[in-house]
Each structure stands twice: as C-alpha cells, then as structure tokens.
C-alpha cells in the first residue's frame, strides 16, 4: 500500500521527467500534429496545455478532499 507522500513523490518524479522532455522540444516539435485516440489531431502545444490544466483541476480536487477529511 502506497502512502500519500509516496504517491506525491512519484507524481513529482514523473512530472519532472516530462518537463525535461518538453524543455528539449524544438519550436517545430511544438506545432507538429499527432493523432490522439480520443481528441483527433492535436499539436504538442495543445496536448501539453490540456494536461497542465487537467492536472491543476485534479490537484485542486485532491486539496478539497483532503480539507474535507481533516
């Protein structure tokens, strides 16, 4: 069973690795179009923006839940 702090550490590690990859993307890579199975054609810029907003929503959701359980 993973503890909350273990999950948070794994999350930070995963996102740190993703940020390193994104920092290495060239301008051409940001505008390149790929095919998402659910959303159809998307650029790296669109996908990165979507995930950033999506994760912010989940972080706020976890904060609300944690506060409700205190």
Q: Class by helix and strand content? A: mainly alpha
State the order of secondary-structure elements, H for helix, E for strand: HHEEH
- Report low-confidence residues grouped into runs of 5 or more: none
- What percent of the residues sit in helical stretches (DSSP H or I)? over 70%
Distance between the termini: 21 Å
The largest sheet is: 2 strands, antiparallel
In terms of DSSP E residues, the strand content is: 5-15%
How would you state the average pLDDT, rounded? 91
What's the helix and strand layout?
Elements: H1 4-23, H2 27-31, E1 33-36, E2 40-43, H3 44-69
Characterization of this structure:
With 70 residues, this protein is mainly α. It is 73% helix and 11% strand. It is built from three helices and two strands, in the order H-H-E-E-H. It has a two-stranded antiparallel ribbon with strand order 1-2. A hairpin with a 3-residue loop joins strand 1 (33-36) and strand 2. The protein starts with a helix and ends with a helix.
Characteristics of this structure?
70 residues
Give a brief rundown of this model.
The chain is mainly alpha-helical and 70 residues long. The chain contains 3 helices and 2 strands; from the N terminus they run H-H-E-E-H.
């Amino acid at each position: 069973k993973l503890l909350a702090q273990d999950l948070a550490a794994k999350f930070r590690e995963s996102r740190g690795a993703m940020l390193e990859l994104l920092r290495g993307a060239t301008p051409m890579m940001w505008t390149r179009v790929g095919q998402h199975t659910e959303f159809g054609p998307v650029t790296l810029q669109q996908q990165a923006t979507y995930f950033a907003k999506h994760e912010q929503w989940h972080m706020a959701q976890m904060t609300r839940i944690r506060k409700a359980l205190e």
